[in-house]
Write a structure and sequence with these properties.
Alpha-Beta Plaits, Molybdenum Cofactor Biosythetic Enzyme, Chain A, EC 4.6.1.17
């Protein structure tokens, strides 16, 4: 049976003028965005907002409600936005008495396939316009300015921060990019052809870039053939000699007769961690329908976490996107299970 196409071709006389991006093959991740904007008031209007003396009632309370509603209604007035199941929207108003302005911050969060930055920005606009509406009777000469996205997290881009800078209190709450700082890492690539020089080892080079970018000390790296005895010996030597925190093995995880990495790891591990392989297979189904053919797995050799990735650079990148956000925390938890040095 031929698999169904993700996108169907339409034999029509006129191409569409625009299209909604297909996010069907994107993997849901925890997304978060924070946006902000400022409204400048006259002293009279500012103090009326602060003291709650405006005739229409509590301005800031209604602005918070409007910000939440604006974020939730984003796809209704921005045509290309996807409808997202928002997990949370929060609105925060900061009154600045020095220049009679109010900064509005909106945070939007969702477990979704695409980001929530438009929801955060829409929430800011709705909150600011509500403040304008409730204060224009005192002073119609108002100014809304500097609406911008401060941060967004999740997805392939990881953590993005506004290059113009963000408040220090917000920066302190963001995850660090160097989440493997102080950790020793090893890379072992299993490939008959790469080890013989028939083609360049791209997966190992990619893994090295990934691990170094996360702050890890890559102190072991080798490319060997798909032979069980060689794999077992090099894995054990790497883990014990270098006292690695993590070893990533790339290649030999398929259903073929030369794909022996999972068999070797099961034999030499002190304990097998099946859940890591199950998690990577489940999440990989967002990328490829036959992810269940892979025998990705993981185990412990002494205090070293060993994870077996597929061999292609694309699969390596995708697997790292799946487990990368949790690896730093996982290694810290492993250390607390009796492996403290």
């Amino acid at each position: 049976m031929k698999p169904a196409k993700d996108i169907l071709n339409f034999k029509v006389s006129h191409d569409p003028n625009f299209k909604m991006i297909d996010v069907g093959r994107k993997r849901p991740t925890r997304r978060r965005a924070v946006a902000c904007g400022t409204i400048c008031l006259s002293p009279e209007a500012f103090f009326a907002v602060r003291d709650g003396t405006l005739p229409k009632g509590n301005v800031l309370a209604l602005a918070e409600a409007a910000g939440i509603m604006g974020a939730k209604r984003t796809p209704d007035f921005i045509p290309m936005c996807h409808t997202l199941p928002l997990d949370q929207v929060t609105v925060h108003c900061d009154l600045k008495e020095t220049d009679h302005s109010i900064d509005v911050y909106v945070q939007a969060a969702a477990y979704a396939k695409t980001g929530v930055e438009m929801e955060a920005l829409a929430g800011v606009n709705a909150a600011l316009l509500t403040i304008w509406d409730l204060t224009k009777g005192i002073d119609p000469d108002l100014l809304i300015e500097d609406i911008r996205l401060l941060i967004k997290t999740g997805g392939k881009s990881g953590v993005w921060t506004n290059p113009r800078g963000i408040p220090e209190w917000l920066q302190e709450q963001l995850p660090t990019a160097l989440f493997l700082s102080g950790k020793k890492a090893g890379i072992l690539v299993m490939s008959d052809r790469a080890s013989s020089g028939a083609y360049e080892d791209l997966s190992g080079a990619l893994l090295k870039d990934i691990l170094c970018s996360a702050g890890a000390d890559v102190c072991a790296y080798d490319v060997i053939p798909d032979r069980q005895d060689d794999i077992a010996k090099v894995m054990l030597d790497m883990c014990h000699a270098n006292k690695l925190d993590i070893l990533i093995a790339s290649g030999g995880t398929g259903p073929g007769p030369r794909d022996v990495t999972p068999d070797v790891l099961a034999r030499i591990s002190d304990r097998v961690l099946d859940g890591i392989g199950d998690f990577m297979r489940m999440e990989s189904l967002h990328y490829v329908d036959t992810a269940w053919l892979s025998r990705m797995t993981a185990g412990m050799i002494g205090s070293t976490l060993v994870i077996a990735f597929p061999g292609s650079p694309k699969a390596v990148q995708e697997c790292w996107e799946i487990i990368g956000p949790y690896i730093g925390d996982a290694l810290d938890k492993i250390r607390k299970q009796g492996f403290e040095v």
